[in-house]
C-alpha cells in the first residue's frame, strides 16, 4: 500500500490483534462456496429431476404443462440465485485508490497527517464523514470505508465480511448480495411448496425409492433456510431503507439524524440503480459503477469546500483520542 504524503501513522496499541488470525476464514470460506453450490444442486435435483421431471412423460396434458411451467420458473430462480451468488463472491467490493485522500491537495493532506501524528485534537467520533486514516493500510479512508481484517485492506462502504461468499460485502457487491439472499429465499420457499405433496406421501409411506430420503432432507433444509433467509433479508431491507450498513448499525455512537438517509426511494436507488429493468440483475453499468465510486470518493461536502478542523464537528471536551481509535 502506498504511504501518502511521505508520513506514516503507526498503531500505538500494544494489545494483541486477534483479527489477524481471522485470515484462516478465507480458507474455510472456499469450502463454504462448494457447500452453497452443493446445497443449490441438491435442492434443484429434488425438485426438477426427481419430482417434476418424471411427470413430463405423463399421459395427462395438464400435468405435463404444469410441470413444464414449474421446471422453467424454478430453473430461472435457481440460475438467478447462482448468478447473484457468484457475482457476490467474485466482484471486488470496492477498494481505496492509491494515494487517495479527502483534501484539496497533497499539501493539505500532508499537514493533516502531521497534525494527526503530533497534536491532540479531536473530531466528533459520531460523525462518519470525519477524515480517518487507516494505520494498517497507511491510507486515508473515505467516508463509510472500513478496514477488513480478513482481506487485510480497506473496503468502500463496508457492510461485513461474509463467510458464505468468502468475500467482503461492500459498495460494489452489496446489490448482488441482497439479490442472492432474495433469490435463495425465493428458491427455498418454492422448493418447500413444490415438495409439499411428496412430503405428505413420505409421511404416509407412499413415497418409495432411493429418492425419498433426499426429498425429505431437502424439504427440511428448505424450511429452515426459508425462515432464516427471510429474517436476514428483512434485517437488510431495514438497513437499506435507512441507508445504513451492518457495521454502522452496531456503532455505539452515531449521528442523529443519520446523514446518509435520503428517504427510502433514493436509498433504494443508491444500491439498485434507477433503471427498474436492472433491479433484479446482480450487475452495474459502468455509469452506475462510476456514480457509486464518486459517491464515496468524490465528495467535498463541507461548506468551506475542504476538510479541516474549522469545517468539521469538533468536540469541545476531551474525548477518546482520534489516533488511538482511528483504525
Ligand atoms: Zn485499511
Automatic annotation (TrEMBL):
Keyword Membrane part of the UniProt annotation: yes
EC number(s) stated in the UniProt entry for this protein: 2.3.1.225
Catalytic activity: L-cysteinyl-[protein] + hexadecanoyl-CoA = S-hexadecanoyl-L-cysteinyl-[protein] + CoA
Catalytic class of the enzyme: transferase
Keywords attached to this entry: Acyltransferase, Membrane, Transferase, Transmembrane, Transmembrane helix
GO CC annotations, alphabetized: membrane
Membrane topology: Multi-pass membrane protein
Places the protein is found: Membrane
Molecular function terms, GO-annotated: protein-cysteine S-palmitoyltransferase activity
Domain Palmitoyltransferase DHHC, residue spans: 130-252
Main location: membrane
UniProt similarity note: Belongs to the DHHC palmitoyltransferase family.
Protein name, UniProt field: S-acyltransferase
Organism of this sequence: Volvox reticuliferus
